[in-house]
Structures are given as C-alpha cells and as structure tokens.
Amino acid sequence: MHAVPDPFDHPQDTAEFRRPAHRPGVELYRAHIVRHAFEPHTHEAFGFGTIDAGVERFRYRGTEHLAPADTLVRMNPDELHTGRAETSAGWRYRMLYLDAEVLEQLSGERGWWFADALDHDAGRARRVSRLLRQLWHAVECASTGTFAGAHAHGHSHAHAHADAHSDSDADADADTEANAAGLAPGSVSEAALAFDGVLLRLVDELRPGARVAQPARSEGLVRFAPVLEHLRANLSQRITLDELAGVAGLSPFHFLRQFRRAHHATPQQMLMALRLFEAKRLLGVGEAPAQVAAAVGLTDQAHLTRTFANRYGVTPARYQQQLGTRPARRT
Q: Is 273 or 184 the better-scoring residue by pLDDT?
C-alpha cells in the first residue's frame, strides 16, 4: 500500500474521519491540531463536538470564539467557520456531523437549531465526549472484527500517542456499552445496534440546548438564497461578480457588501467552501480525486489536495483511505 502524504507541517497535527457503514448521514472526526489553521469551510450538516484538551479559536457567524477543554461545540448546518490553536500546545477534539434528516429521525422533532456555538457545561461536555469515543470505537469494531484493541487500528503514531489516555477510556466505555446492550466481546454483527443506541443517547444530551422552532430568516439570507443555489449549480464554471449581482438584482459592489454582511464571508469564500464540501461528498462515494477536482471547478488534483487539506485537515487520498472509498488502482 502506498503511503498517503501528511498535509500538516507539525508532526503532532493529525486528523481522522470515520463513517458507520450502516448509517448514512453520519460522520465522525477527531483531531489534534497544534499549528494548522483551517480556512473557512462548511459541512452542510450539524456539527457537535467536544474540546478534550487545549483551547481552540474559531470564527463563526462573524464572531471570534474561544473553546477551552470541557466545552461542547454546536454548529448549525451551512455555517462557514474557521479553526486554529489558541495555545502553543494546540487542542484535541472530537466531532460528530449529522445530516438534518438523520437528526430529525433520531429526535422525532423538526427544525433543531442552536443559538450559541458553545456550551460551557463541563459535565455535559465530558458526557458527550465519552459518547463520541464510544461511537468511534463501535465503528472500528465493525471494521476490524473485534471489540478488544480496535481503537489502535490505522492510527498514526503521533495521534495514538496523543490520545493514549482517552483511547484507553474509550475501550472501557465502549466495552461497557457493549455489555449493557447484551453484546459479547467480538459480536460485530450487533455493533451497529450498539452504535445506534449510543447515538440516541448523545442526541438526548444535546436536546436541552436545542431550539426547535427556527427563527425567521433574515432578509439578507432570504434574498441571497438564489445566489447560493446558483453557486451550487455552477461549481465547475467560471463565476463573476457581475453574474452573481445579476442573480440578486443588485449592483456588483452593493451586492458584495450585502452578501458579506449576511453570510460573514465573501462570495469567493462561499464558492470555495461549497466546492470543497461537494468534493468531500464525491470523495466519500469513491470518485477519483482528479475527476473530483474537475467536477468542482478546481485547477487540478494538486489544487484539490491543497485546498481540501486546508479546510478538513486531511488530504483527499487520506480521507478516502480512512473511509475505505479509495478507487482501485489501475494496472
């Protein structure tokens, strides 16, 4: 197997993705970041996570936030955000990305949203972190065929070292969850059932901070909805400011000012975020990186690699390797 290049400059910067094979619309992520700074990006899904160590600084809805250890992070879909370390030691965190439809099925409620990106209830954050570790462990159980020691499969040395204590806890937590569900060690056939049980418990933990009736969309967001649809429909095309202003019915620079005020990003930043999210989706279903680059309007595969890593912390090849969706090599 060919080694996948690491996009990070600092040896302690690591990031990994996992997806449960049985549950579309769910993605797990964990990372330890010291030097890397994430450029504006979006996930088009709810993002729930915990800061397990260190402090993160990120920009969300036009405001800078600091998230120290034992903080719960809650992001609504389609919100551009950044991320970088606030301290020299960086920060370690875990995330769960849930499609809105999946969250609705789990909660039985429609229209969840979160007014605040951060919840500083340390007890709830630790409970959610424990559940996130259990979810990760359950996915690895299903992929490796065993409960014991599954967490070590496929880790980089740096990440395994950084997460040594938390992964030991994850073993105990996940095995406890498996036992509570009536699973014997190695009973991979029921790992999906255990995963779904933990996922529901995690949603229950998030419910107290959720608002169910969404607030009325601002005039700017409503006005620019056709612009976003135009961007999504033309990712591979050359798009001009005059073109977007015409869709909005405004003069070019008036449009530029109003769009930035509504979305806390320029049209070009939004376009790149949408391009990279679509690239992430295509990579997740097994499309070759070179084809993905062309499909979303990037110059070439190298451009895709650089911009994807800047936003998601892994190269396209490593992302596909972690999800098991890398295209077969031609002989």
A: 273
CB-CB contact of 307 with 268 (8 Å): no
Q: Find the mean pLDDT for residues 245-267.
A: 88
Query: What's the rounded Cα separation, in Å, for the pair 136 and 14?
Result: 16
**Per-chain mean pLDDT for the chain:** 83
Query: Burial, 84: exposed, middle or buried (Cβ in 10 Å; 0-12, 13-18, 19+)?
Result: middle
Q: What phi and psi values does residue 41 have, to the nearest 5 degrees?
A: -155, 170
Exposed / middle / buried, residue 71 (Cβ in 10 Å: 0-12, 13-18, 19+): buried
Tell me the whole-structure pTM to 2 decimals: 0.71
The amino acid sitting at 155 is H
235/318 same-domain check: yes
CATH at residue 240: 1.10.10.60
Listed residue (232, 272, 273) closest to 41, CA to CA: 273
How far apart, in Å, do the first and last CA atoms of the chain sit? 14
What gap in Å lies between CA 157 and CA 285, rounded to an integer? Answer: 28
In a domain, 94, yes or no: yes
What would you measure as the largest C-alpha separation in the chain, in angstroms? 66
Residues 210 and 228: their CA atoms lie apart, in Å, by 26
DSSP 127: H
Contact 147, 225 (CB under 8 A): no
Report d(CA 180, CA 184) in Å as an integer.
Answer: 10
Q: Which domain range does residue 279 map to?
A: 219-323
Query: From CA 236, how far away is CA 298, in angstroms rounded?
Result: 7
Domain count, the chain: 2
Tell me the one-letter amino acid at 249: G
**CB of 8 within 8 A of CB of 25?**
no
Within 8 A by CB and 6+ apart from 161, the residues are none
Amino acid identity for residue 31 in this structure: A
Could you give the CA distance from residue 249 to residue 283 in angstroms, rounded to a whole number?
35
Q: Which of 308, 330, 307 is nearest to 319 (CA)?
A: 308
Please tell me the distance from the alpha carbon of residue 138 to that of residue 156, in angstroms, as a whole number: 19
For residue 131, what pLDDT is reported? 96
Q: 118 pairs with which residues across the strands?
A: 73
